[in-house]
Amino acid sequence: MPVTKEQSERLKKFKNKGKDSTALRRQRVEVNVELRKAKKYEQILKRRSISFSLVDESVSPGEDNEIEMSMEEIVEAVNGSNAELQLLATQNVRRMLSTQNPPISQIVELGIIPRLIEFLTYYDNASLQFEAAWALTNVASGNSDHTRAVVEGGAIPALVSLLSSPHMHISEQSVWAMGNIAGDGPLYRDALFRCNVIHPLLALVSPTTPVGFLRNITWTLSNLCRNKDPYPPLDAVKKILPVLLYLTEYEDKDIISDSCWAFSYLTDGPNDRIQIVVDTGILPRLVEFMASPELTIVTPALRAIGNVVTGTDEQTQAAIDAGVLTVLPYLLQHVKPTIQKEAAWMLSNIAAGPPQQIQQIIACGLLPPVVELLDKGDFKTQKEAVWVVANFTTGGTVEQVVELVQSGVLKPLLNLLLINDSKIILIILDTISNLFMAAEKVGERDRLCLLVEELGGLEKIEALQSHNNDLVYQAASNVLDKYFSTE
Amino acid sequence: MELSDANLQTLTEYLKKTLDPDPAIRRPAEKFLESVEGSQNYPLLLLTLLEKSQENVIKVCASVTFKNYIKRNWRIVEDEPNKICELDRIAIKANIVPLMLSSPEQIQKQLSDAISIIGREDFPQKWPDLLTEMVNRFQSGDFHVINGVLRTAHSLFKRYRHEFKSNELWSEIKLVLDAFALPLTNLFKATIELCSTHANDASALKVLFSSLILIAKLFYSLNFQDLPEFFEDNMETWMTNFHSLLTLDNKLLQTDDEEEAGLLELLKSQICDNAALYAQKYDEEFQPYLPRFVTAIWNLLVTTGQEVKYDLLVSNAIQFLASVCERPHYKHLFEDQNTLTSICEKVIVPNMEFRAADEEAFEDNSEEYIRRDLEGSDIDTRRRAACDLVRGLCKFFEGPVTGIFSGYVNSMLQEYAKNPSVNWKHKDAAIYLVTSLASKAQTQKHGITQANELVNLTEFFVNHIQPDLKSASVNEFPVLKADGIKYIMIFRNQVPKEQLLVSIPLLINHLQAESIVVHTYAAHALERLFTMRGTNNTTLITAAEMAPFVEVLLTNLFKALTLPGSSENEYIMKAIMRSFSLLQESIIPYIPSVITQLTQKLLAVSKNPSKPHFNHYMFESICLSIRITCKANPDAVGSFEEALFMVFTEILQNDVQEFIPYVFQVMSLLLEMHKNEIPSSYMALFPHLLQPVLWERTGNIPPLVRLLQAYLERGANTIASAAADKIPGLLGVFQKLIASKANDHQGFYLLNSIIEHMPPGSVDQYRKQIFILLFQRLQNSKTTKFIKS
């Protein structure tokens, strides 16, 4: 059925020419199922307060005479009405939960969580409120079942009320607890929004707020921005954004890092979500952060801008105008392979743009580092670099493709035909076809054939005819039939 | 079909007949089985037979038939009927695993294949308990059963190595990992322990090592797509054990066979692959283990012999080093000059040597030798691996490595010069080093095109290659001759044209060499040279430059086809075709003899066509000689018809399927050459072309349509006047073609020609019917292609 095949090929060509960039742009997550261990470079979802913070000694009394209680005694005291014993028992719980391997499940099973939540409303007993909030923070830092125990016990409204507590250490502890709750997933995150967390939380940010407290707030805000399915409600996001913008002005790397993470979550979505962030004018600042010496800042800033360039041509142009292409050469040669990989991923999406943007890639000197990565990058980076080249050859003009070939892309690209990844091999074969189409237009087809042969590419393509993946085998045969058969 | 003894008996009879050497008995039996395979219980009858039949041969035959049945029918294709009834499917899935595990090995393999075909369609959703069923058997302690499970698992999971990443695939892998990874790891540990308890029991060791090989293969499949969390957490267990298995040796596992790899070699090869996979993909996590593996594999390489049975192991081991040495953060493991020298000396050079086994292949199995050497199917050879290692090393150490090897090339050439007849293998090694290592691509550095640093290619050609090819005897040192010719092929773009022209008569001369490899290479080299492009898109070598050699070239090419072993040599036939196309009208004087030889060849091979490429080039050559000759002298077409029609008639009469489409093509070509009315010889053939049976075969359709078009173009009037009764037949062909989605365009070609050339009066009466047919098709199965045509 030769005609149908021809037709689909023509359609494909048309698509590329017509630049339906969604086909070329790749969102971060192609596959939702993960085989790997959770990523080491991600921001932490939940955290416990194990450090005995400064407030500890000054505020919480009776730390000197630590009285250890048994589980039975704790249950009895918590459920009893003696305020002193309540405090002592809650302290005991908090202390147990602040160890290296806290017995969270055991504590949950005692059935005292609802009582601890009730303590949050004891406005006449600030010490008890604080201890309870701390203990609940640590319970919520556990697995989803633990967090659920806290939320289903009715903690959210109580914690939201505590945000307006006159005692700063109590509102701070509440912020922290809510961060853990939001970090569990979109369900509880939205439960927080429904309890109107936004207004009192954002009210805590002011020029007089201590930096340590601001760090906690920023982290909680970032968790409130996190997760898709569903995305956080639009009106809440719109309220959070100006505060995030303000927070990025602090010269504190934790605050900057967590606000960048927030931006990275907010941009990790469809184009209208990206647009909201672009409209804040934050892009130049994020690009600046991409060049930071701090890895904890570079990583999320790079992600955020990386997400932006998965958007429309205009959104990508906004990132280019913010200077992203001048930072990329440096990031493509970063010491950390993960940064190289993310940078290459970003570039692959910019390369999926129209010829004007591709031209800017060339002008900013990005081709040599890409060739270098194709040649010597680690496996994942090489794969991203292949995507860069593939998109470049799909959307670039003939002159641009010629420029690409002249920068030495062919040799490392052909070497990668030996890679252990069928999909990438297929993309390389498609790229080779693109190169030939360009070469034909400038009458250089024979020279390209020769070059491919001399660089050992021909024998590799020939060997792919025995590849087990049918599509790879067919693509290899097509290239050979079309460009190397001597008939 | 009931599950009755009577049916089992009948089935046994037919299965027996399918094994009969006489096609008159075998074919009807096969047809019968195919005709009943749609019946319910048919697969269950087969399963019963393969389990319970009294005769072993019937058991095996039933298992093979069952597997093929599953292969043809299990998949449910959209819009097509389900070919196996649901009850049978359920029964098969419920019984096949235990049946497979309790069967003898020969049958186990067939059933294992069948399981993996079913698994490909049904696993995991429609076969949820398969995994647990398999894993439970690990505890059986019976390694016959365990190996059956492992083999099945391997055939189920090996597709993870080449399929594209997708949610569906990864969900499946996750499911498999959850159920399988831990039991597999425990089995791995237990098996290794058993290996040491049974270290003195050869037969037990063999079974255990077969398990280890399968386990190592499963490890590769499960770790291919990404590094699973489980294996990252258990890397210590796996890698420590893999490492110690690499260094293990046990006399009881050594084999006497020089050719076939033993269990120990197979296991170590797979471990090398596993380590290379981790080094390439999971670099960061694997780093702590890597140096140990480099050392172990290095030791392995310097202690492993030259025997063929070690080829796979050695090439995998070298590939591992090759993939590691080009990684920036491991370059320190190699950069010491002594290390580099000893890699070159102890690993690369020895593995590039021409071994006794290569010499045997060169002489006795030249087809295989050529395929490996010329067509790049040498992926798993030592030589290829050694070359890859050199290329890897050159990434960071180009200077020192090139230095070491150019020293080697020189010293080997000197050795050769001392005593050529004894030391010719040294020269072979030197040429091999140059042809495989000298970079063909010239690199642009600092504005100048750099010449090759290993050797000066042209000087090497003049000083070391040409002298061999100029020697008086074409049969002396055949390996070196082949090397020299290959050198010309490989560096044809680097060596200046003058030198190529000097080589052409030498190559023509070597067409007469007795060695199949040598004359094949000579033909191939000529073919390659003739296709080279010069400036302004003409061939580099012109017909004028070839003028002095035309006669000897054609003579030697056709003579080469008479040399033993080359009667259907596709390289020679391709060179003939290419020579015609280059020489054009200068071949005309030789056409009478050429066409006689080609028709004789055609007649000979049509008895049993076996080499499709050869046949293709032969017909191309025939077409070329017709075109070239008739372009100069259109009247010559008659002499071609005279020479060819007799053979063609024989081909058509004997229904030589492979050749019929070609025959139609040549006939269209000949017919198109006629300027006047269609000759009567063609008209006599016309009715036969409309026979439905010819149109049954899809391969015939395009050339037949073209031929009918040629008939219409040249002979429409003759058809209208002398064969008007054939017009309905012609339209019948049209009707058949447009009914098919694949061939409707051919139908339109034919219709166009009918309307264009036939006298209108002769087709008027059919016009209405034609439109009805077109609209019917439009109504019944509309496709974009049909509407647009």
Automatic annotation (TrEMBL), chain A:
Gene3D superfamilies membership: Importin-alpha, importin-beta-binding domain (1.20.5.690), Leucine-rich Repeat Variant (1.25.10.10)
UniProt ARM repeat ranges: 111-154, 154-182
Keyword annotations: Protein transport, Repeat, Transport
Domain of life: Eukaryota
A Pfam cross-reference name: Arm_3
Domain IBB: 1-57
GO biological process: protein import into nucleus
InterPro entries, A to Z: ARM-like, ARM-type_fold, Arm_3, Armadillo, Importin-a_IBB, Importin-a_IBB_sf, Importin_alpha
Gene Ontology MF, one: nuclear import signal receptor activity
The keyword Transport belongs to this UniProt entry's keyword annotation: yes
Disordered: region residues: 1-23
GO cellular component, one term: cytoplasm
Family classification: Belongs to the importin alpha family.
Name by which UniProt lists this protein: IMA1 protein
Gene name of the record: Kpna2_1
Automatic annotation (TrEMBL), chain B:
Primary residence: cytoplasm
Keywords carried by this UniProt record: Cytoplasm, Nucleus, Protein transport, Transport
Annotated GO MF terms: nuclear export signal receptor activity; small GTPase binding
Alphabetical list of Pfam families matching this protein: CAS_CSE1, Cse1, IBN_N
Biological process, per Gene Ontology: protein export from nucleus; protein import into nucleus
GO terms for cellular component: cytosol; nuclear envelope
Superkingdom of source: Eukaryota
Domain Importin N-terminal: 29-102
Keyword Transferase: no
Protein's cellular compartments: Cytoplasm; Nucleus
Family the UniProt entry places it in: Belongs to the XPO2/CSE1 family.
Protein name: Exportin-2
